[in-house]
Amino acid sequence: MKQIKKALSLWGRIIFVVFILLLTFSFAMFQGGFVSWFIFYMALPFVLYSLLLIFYPLQDIEMTRQIHTAQIRRGQKYSATVHFKRKLSFPLLYTVLTEKTNSIALRKRNPADNRTMFMPGFRKSHTWRYEIDDMPRGEHVLEGIELEVADFFGWTKKTKMFPLKQTILVYPKTHDIPYRAIESSYDQGAMAAPHTLVKDTTMATGIRDYQPGDRVSWIHWKSFARTQTLRTKEFEDRQAEDLFLLDDRKPSDKFELQVELTASLLQSIVRANSSVAYLSIGSTLDSFPVIHSESHLQRVMYHLTKILPDLDRPAEEVVSRDLQQIRATTIIYVTTKLTVEMVEAIRRNVKNLNTCMCLVLSNKGEKFDKADEAAHQFAVSKGFIVKLVAPENFASVFTEVGRK
């Protein structure tokens, strides 16, 4: 259907240009005189150029795109260069290049950010470098470059789509958050985890044979110098809480801040050599049972890059059954709106829960309504830690753990 419309449009323009040519010629023939023939000869070059442009093969043109920033953080700048090349030296006038994308967020931007007009003339090549400031988080697919050429008066227009599909990943913006275990103990502490989450590298207790995966910083170099055999220091295991991170994808004007906080928390925990499980509540439940390495963290970051605020039901209805599977002693719940029902769902379904810290996104100086205040007070009365977190105090999430 699209091809039929395009063909009809092309033939319509041909008929229109030929009609102008015949009209001016007829006027000159029947009217006679200098003025009428002058009008005909003035229109003739424009008409002939329009007819030649109709038959100019756009297949002669080659288009390539070079992306300079394939992976960036939200708010950073994206830049790319488009190279326009052709073999024929047919003079081209008004030429427009447009970057086409299926990303709604990018399409809402200023059209001038991803469009340019130039006049190649007889030139066979052209380079267009463009930048988009303050990129939105997400997975943005660039479908290709649309080329449009036109004559002097727009009588003839031709377009061609060059499919150059590439993907831009705009990861959530992250903040440096110093990590401190909410509850931890040595050896036989009451809340000792079933596996070691942190090794206290200040307390070496012996050496053992080197095993693949041991860090270089753990190698006992003095022993290696004597025996030429790799040996690894043994440290006292510092056992920390079973940590579970939970967040919801409720539609909110603070959703991007929520994603940033979640990404920052996960990054902080993993880079502190700790481990965490993560569950994201939305139209789908996305679970990551174990996150303790950079490769695990990258998979979660990819998930956080694509998520949308798509939770259309109360979070406790969606996740109540999954909460029963949680065996963690410590939960961090990140949300933009804390409810009494969700607090009750966590208390009722998580059997081994010892500590729950609720991080509620807020703006500086924001006032909460009575329902929000009641939910916060109810959570505190049940032993939960409630913290109102604004972008200014992301860094103090772990270092100032305390009740609201």
TrEMBL record:
The chain crosses the membrane at residues 7-28, 34-56. Residues 207-349 form the DUF58 domain. InterPro entries: DUF58 (IPR002881). Keywords: Membrane, Transmembrane, Transmembrane helix. It holds the Pfam family DUF58. This is DUF58 domain-containing protein. It comes from Planomicrobium okeanokoites (Planococcus okeanokoites).
